[in-house]
Amino acid sequence: MTNPTHRFSAYMAVTALVIAVAVFIEPGALPIAATLLALEIAMYFHLWLSIGAVNKLEVEASIDAFTDREPVVVRIRLVNRGLYPVLLAEYSLGYEPILRLEKGCKAGILTVPSRGVAELVFVFGARVGMHRIDGLTLVVRDFLGLFKSQPLVVWKGSSFKVIPSTEATVLKRLYLYTRSSGLVRSRRPGEGIEFYDVRDYRPGDELRRVVWRIYATRQKLAVWEAERESYQAIVYVINSSRDMWIGAPKATPVEHSARVIASIARYAASRGYLQTAAVVNEYGTRVFGGPVFGRQGLTRVLEALANASLCTLCTEEDQVNWSAALASILPVLPRERAFIFIFTKTTPNTERLLDLVTKLSSLGHRVYVVAPITVTYDISHGLPQKFIDVYRARQLEVAAEELRGIELLRKAGVRVIAVSPQLVAQRIVQALELISA
């Protein structure tokens, strides 16, 4: 449980020298030698008691995580109910490399008094998806630095989820666009909330739809008829592999895609569309049920986006298995035509992506590949002037590679949405409403 440090060797050498002087040269140095030995034993005994106190600590941890606009706050309270304090301990917090610690220190020194509490607070910048705090470890030391304990895990960590926030400007733009263009009008009678026409009463019509003004003037029952809502089933497939997490914080392709999907899903929920989502990465595919209406569909989509995670154990050789993704998605697809939007980079697995789109299209579904070209606004922060040109050249290289993949898919007949980030949501809604009407 305890290990001597490099100071222990020097301390023992000094102690041995004092003992040698006391034995062979000056007997008066013997009390000093005894004091040095007693101090060493006292430090070891103190460390042993401190380790026992650490093992009995009660840990109360909480993680406050909501949307990507609010910081993630991690609070860890170490409660010591014993009589012996933890006077000197080094703590270390582990977390995923994509998380950024904004307040607090990843490692430091703490003291837990007897029958007291020590609280550590860490504030991280929120990022969309599911992330993990690996845990808190303590290393106990004595005052002289002669001994230290092995790392003691006092908290094993926990995962938390961050849902993407909807962008108010995007939603406002969507409503204004569809309202001015009339895309949401089906111009056919059916279920809906917009007025379509007045017709004669039929057995089974609801009384609340009777137009009593006509009955009062003509003594004839008539009911108002609604205009059928134009909607389809929508399936969002988001790729959360390692390539999608590369970029500026909060502006990576996966985070940009998540915010776009959240905004579209909120709009589609108000229009009564059926919705669901699936998350694909190197781990596999997670599908969150079949398409459902309204608020329930929005909740299902947000839940899926909150489960997008980075594969920390994967290597560059690991790729997304689109064939397995197809097998997981097929059972939840409706028999009728559905809109499937695949948010992913088109490289390096262009051929597998093309095969997936071809198979889904052959089943009668309308498939779109949405390529988030986020490098167009990925700017360099804090780089010296001499590195800016190199950075820009690298960004142009990444953008050119992505555009080549987009061109290959379009030549193969795949519908690809690759526009500026501000217009992605509008293009998707345009595709939905034009085909649904």
UniProtKB/TrEMBL annotation:
Taxonomic superkingdom: Archaea
Annotated ranges, domain DUF58: 197-385
Record flagged with keyword Cell division: no
Membrane-spanning residues: 6-25
Keyword annotations from UniProtKB, A to Z: Membrane, Transmembrane, Transmembrane helix
Protein known as: DUF58 domain-containing protein
Annotated organism of origin: Ignisphaera aggregans
